[in-house]
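User: Structure please.
Assistant: Input sequence and predicted structure:
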Amino acid sequence: MTDDTADRIVLSYPADIGQHGRKRLDQDYYKGWLRKAHDAAAVGDEWDEFTDIGCCGSRMDLPLRVERVEGGPRIDSGTAIEYTEREACGVNPGWSVQHDEPETLRN
């Protein structure tokens, strides 16, 4: 990595993302997608992402926020991506049957 490349970034996701969404976020393919989709990161950046929910072409919204950047701002294939949870924000969890979102979202 060069001096302008991030060694690690920490992204936060809303607490109301269910276990299905959390599992998707942590997959290598999804982290790889984030590295390709974003050239750089700065604390406070908000990324409106989504993932499929595994059925019927539906999707789940995943609003991510950059909480920490270690190293420079540029993201490349060697940049580690980690996550932390933040306050709930009423996200669209996708098709409720597919995953286990919090009870408050099932109504």
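The chain is about 15% helix and 35% strand.
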